[in-house]
């Protein structure tokens, strides 16, 4: 979206020029404004006339014409009243502070010559003022004392050169622009350093495979802002030398700054929505809204800036933010504040594990987003002869503060990088483009689970889409009676990690698995959405945004473990091992253990395990026992369907331990609460059912299809079971 901005700007500049032509039937035309600084009292006459308050002019017009150059310097407000009034040319001429008859030599008109049917008048006007004063220049062709037909057209060429002050770096600048050159050069230097830092940051994160799309957006925003500063510095440096500058460079800088700001606003909104922090992807609706907002903001900004360059009248306002285009641009920023606040609040509510980070991030960048509208309002209280430079410096300072803060947070060697957190691998490595990974439960707010490690109390092994290979699953060599020991494994053969430690036991255990030869004896990890073959439409088919958010949380938790424990290991091997240990580990007191043979047992109700006094780990048959040749199974314990699908990639039916969280009030509904006596809870269940895109009957019909994709079948099974629970809670069964 940046190309249209840059292509057009070469033709958009040069409206505030000091030379031009008039060929109009209008008898009175404004051509230029300039704010003069006070003339010091201790200067000699020669120095005063050469350096301070000087208007050097040259005007050419047809022989016989009698135009006048009018100067107004009674204040900005009085000028605006005059300019916007319906007064006649004669009335406006009478209001002029000073008028110069260009056809008559004398006074400030030092030379009048005629050649080839044209008259050329030239001269100098000294503006001696004690305070900053706006001077507005207009040409007229009318008689101030006339009341009838007393005005004519304006046909002339003019060349105006206004100087201000004694300093060569500021002499050519109007007082409202004084300081633009040093301000631009200051931020050019600052952004030069920041641009180099972003280049270094990009290289470091690429080496670590952590160069996310969000980092790329930040880097490009900084580099585009730097390019804008270069063009602005060229314009103002040239302007300081010749009084004309490079309008195309100025306009290019304006559009580049808009592009950098757009990227920056988009970046902070995406971070507020949790992208690359707690969410692998945005929802379809979220992506559509982002695309629509960015497109609207881009083309609206382009249209409004073109309007400002071609239609905006500098005679009416001291700053472009006071014009209609400026008001619309500020309004768009205010809309971004509201969007950011809503997105940040939603993310903080749904991802409680990152609430401390988001409290700080949301507060800081809400203030940053709203600072621009506030500074525009503050600028209205600044003197009109300093307002423009105040807004320029404020805009650049705000942009630099945001760029520098984000670049600092992205530095990989700082502690804040882990808190941010951008320690997960890059988007391509994480499968953000077309893959989806998840594994062990890792965050607060898990379904029906107050403690993440408790989810693995009896977690062993399951491979849903297909049964586990019979050569791997343990089978009974002989009949085993009810509650008899089926498998006994010495504890020293197990991999054991203590639960209570500074880091997570699963990451430590996964690193041990990868470092050993044990993966050769284990089946493939369960085909949860972690394996990368769950497309977006299947995830949307779950019809449970909160569960999708939990999937994203687990996704990032897995890569936190990779960053913390996987140094020097193959990333995919580590993630596979992490999925294995999280789905096959059993609890032994305060320890978690990966036990040979037990880690191959599939789930079925009844089977259990225990540790003997001498340390052996025993798997016992269920109440029905196990016949010779039958598979020895283990009861994984009660858990919700969300956890079954999240960790083991299957859903047991029926599952009386299922529970779900209602989206509005976050209240939990489980089969253990049936029948429900709370009328408000029943009403919320009814509302949740009504909001579902499909009905329970439609889900049942869909599951009858034999050609249904296995992943979609799991998603439909999940949402059907959820609707059955909600229907029972609502008393609809």
TrEMBL record:
**In Gene Ontology terms, what is a biological process of this protein?**
G protein-coupled receptor signaling pathway
GO cellular component: a single term: membrane
> What InterPro entries is this protein classified in?
GPR180-like_N (IPR053880), GPR180/TMEM145 (IPR047831), GPR180/TMEM145_TM (IPR019336), Rubisco_LSMT_subst-bd (IPR015353), Rubisco_LSMT_subst-bd_sf (IPR036464), SET_dom_sf (IPR046341)
**Membrane in keyword set:** yes
Q: What is its main location?
A: membrane
Residue ranges of domain GPR180-like N-terminal in the record: 19-145
Q: Which residues form the signal peptide?
A: none
Indicate where this protein resides in the cell.
Membrane
Per UniProt, the keywords (alphabetical) are:
Glycoprotein, Membrane, Transmembrane, Transmembrane helix
Pfam families hit by this protein: GPR180-TMEM145_TM, Rubis-subs-bind, TMEM145_N
Q: What topology does the record note for this protein and the membrane?
A: Multi-pass membrane protein
By what name is this protein known? Answer: SET domain-containing protein
Species the sequence originates in: Chrysophaeum taylorii
